[in-house]
Amino acid sequence: MNYVLAGMNHKTAPVAMREKVAFGKGDQSRALARLLNTPAIQEAVILSTCNRVEIYSSTKEIGEAKKILLETMLSGCNTEDHHTLKNHVYFRENECAVLHLFEVAASLDSQITGENQITAQVKEAHLVAHQNSATGYYLNNLFSRALFVAKRVKTETDISRGNVSVGSVGAMLAQKIFGSLKDKSVLLLGAGETGELVIRHLNSLHPKETMIVNRTFDKALKLQAEGLGTAYEFEELGRLLCDADVLISSVSGVLTQLSRDAICTVMNERYQQPLFIIDLGVPRTIPAEVSGIDNLYLYNIDDLHEIAGENKAARSLSAEEAKNIIDQEARLFYEKHINFLALPAIAGLGKKFEAIRAHEFKRTVSKMPLLSHEDIARIEKLTHSIINKILHDPVLSLKNQKELSEPYVIGIFRKLFRLDDEGSE
Amino acid sequence: MEYAFLAVLFIYLTAALFYILRLVFGYAKFSAIGLRCVVLGAVVQLTVLVIHLIRLQGTVSLGYLEYFQLSSLFLAILFIVLCFSKRFYGSGPFFITLIVVFCLLSFSLHTPSMLSQLTRGSGYLLLHMVFLFLSLVVFSVSFVVAIMFLLSEWQIKQKRLKGITARFPPLQVLDHVHYRSLYTGFVLFTLVIITGAGFAKIKTGHYISADLKQVLGIVSWLFFAALLNLRAGKGLSGHRGVVLSLIGCVSIIISFILGFSR
Asked: Averaged over A200-206, what is the pLDDT?
């Protein structure tokens, strides 16, 4: 049994192409059923995320399987796109396929190395295939091991440590200052794209209230309609500053409400309760000297980028460590897999030789009626011994020599001794 | 019995070793082992202390060995509770140092024979000593958490989120624990002053004398009363409040040392 995968990811194709081959949940069930209807594919799993579309399969016919996997991948696209899309599809077989899945699950092949989402997506893809009865011994084994390896990598290395996007760094800092945001209010000033990104991360921490203020009230209302928070008139900014614990300033230029003196007044009015300000504006809206005020923590866009950059660099270092773990695990897994593949061939060979021996022994003994029971036993022992001696070396080689345990060699071996023929034993 | 207390010290030292390994190598599993050692140390220490106190009953009164052992046990329990309730794992090196210091003091400080005799004869002095050591522990916690707050705040202000402080609890949690321990310490310290004055009245006929230790104690009490009032009324929290509380803690520690040196 071979592992074969066909895929397209963020490295090989732009998003415009990836979205053409992406599978929705309903599409996945249909595609899995279609794949299993073909004789070449024994098991299949479809992994479809925003960064990759991959179909994993177990098969006896690698060439045929590749053809079917490609057809399935392109089944949802126009025929005129097929030629272009084909050039962006990659294939992996056996050990390379195992290694690839381990890297994907451990988030080494992701756009942001070490992100946690992909492991859950791999788990989900396996679950969906399992629910559609599209997985069996081989892919179940492969996917459980991939998830185990992902967990090992995350535990033993720092690959997932530290936030690498501006939004998540902002949220991490808020947590570092306040702990839980459940009783804290967040104020977004301005409707910029980065501000929106940061507020989305902060909202994932479930603050008590998210307030949105913009010079153009309609834009604030638009963000309110998206469920990001409650829109307020710009004139209310002074009052809202006293209530807010986190301020995301996404406007540029000078604002009188955010001068040093105004912020000092705000701090007094709020009884020196801590205030965390993220100034995303360029040029900056909040004067830098404000950071000297007690209980006020000021970060600007460069600070957030710097922290994210440092974390990214740290993750890259951990990626090398993770790669070693994955290489070792993939090698071990594949060795066990091919040993497992050799076992039925060895058993089949033994059975076949035993059947021949028993048949020939019976035929010969029936022609020699004068033989005593002791002689018959001696001859039977002799035939057993001959068969065992003949089989000893090939069986040992199949078990111990890696190159002889490769699926294609096992295939040749089975054909050579006609182990798959009905009634051959 | 001293060997049993030495065994407890050895367990706490092992915990300290794992916390040092955690600092050097950065593996979280070391602090997990360290915490288990502290739990084991606390259980063994509690058992040893109970046996020791049962043996002592009716023979001699409590001395520094017992008071400091009780204090280190109380501190270990506080640390374990904070770890599980407030995720105070990063504070291990600070707490374990204090626990070890209390254990070492229990062996090194010789109990004055006068204290043993007086304690036997006066309920006031016994209560005074118990509250004194309890407040010492609580103020120590407040002191440690205040240091952690200042380090953590400094790193956040400097925008350097690395090293040991990165594993500290959030600033507001530190502030909360710091002031809670300060309030508790203040209540206990009030009881220390009341029971101390009661004992002084019996012994000398006066509630208070011009003794430096007593004066410093009362000044510290007034300082904390003002500080806690300002926090409640004017919002004296965060950096400034923590620095002021550290000054108060230092004056209390000095008055304790003056008490022990007599």
From this structure: 91
Share of residues in chain A with pLDDT > 90 (%): 30
At A72-82, the pLDDT tens digits run 888 877 777 77
CA distance A265 to chain B (A): 14
A96 catalytically annotated: no
Q: What is the mean pLDDT of chain A?
A: 87
Residue B191 pLDDT level (bands cut at 50, 70, 90): very high
Q: What's the pLDDT tens digit per position in B111-152?
A: 665 566 655 556 778 888 888 889 989 998 999 999 999 999
Residue B122, pLDDT score = 66
Cβ contacts (< 8 Å) between B236 and chain A: which residues? Answer: 272
Q: Confirm if A356 and A384 have CB atoms less than 8 A apart.
A: no
Nearest chain B residue (CA) to A179: B170
Least Cα separation, residue A271 to chain B (angstroms): 5
Q: Is B159 part of a structural domain of the chain?
A: yes
Q: Are strands A185-189 and A209-213 parallel, antiparallel or unpaired?
A: parallel
Is a pLDDT exceeding 50 seen at residue A425? no
Q: Among all chains, which residue has been given the structure tokens 């010290």?
A: B9
Task: Determine whether the interchain pair A294/B235 forms a contact, defined as Cβ–Cβ distance below 8 Å.
Answer: no
Residue pair B244/B236 in contact by the 8 Å Cβ criterion: yes
Closest in A178, A274, A307 to B161, CB measured: A307
Q: How far apart are the C-alpha atoms of B66 and B1, rounded to whole Å?
A: 12
Report the pLDDT value the prediction gives residue A78, as an integer from 0 to 100: 77
Do B207 and B157 sit in the same domain of this protein? yes
Q: Are A113 and A12 in contact (CB under 8 A)?
A: no
Q: How many interface pairs between A and B have CB atoms less than 8 angstroms apart? A: 46
Q: Contact B237/A299, CB-based, under 8 Å?
A: no
CA-nearest of A64, A68, A80 to A20 is A80
pLDDT at A83: 79
How far apart, in whole angstroms, are the C-alpha atoms of residue B38 and residue B81? 11
pLDDT of A284 over the 90 cut: no
Contact call for B236 and A297, based on CB within 8 A: no
* B172 interaction partners in chain A (CB closer than 8 Å): 177-179, 274
Enter the DSSP assignment of A369: T
Pick the CATH number of A2-161 from 3.30.460.30, 3.40.30.10, 3.30.230.80, 3.30.460.10: 3.30.460.30
For residue A283, whether the previous peptide bond is cis, meaning omega lies within 30 degrees of 0, is yes
Domain layout of chain A by residue ranges: 2-161, 166-302, 336-416
Is A297 in Cβ contact with B157 (below 8 Å)?
Answer: yes
Place of tokens 């010969």: A364
Task: Tell me which of A50, A77, A96, A264 is the catalytic residue.
Answer: A50
Tokens describing residue A131: 């629910």
The mean pLDDT of B229-257, rounded to a whole number, is 83
**What is the rounded distance in angstroms from the CA atom of residue A113 to the CA atom of residue A399?**
38
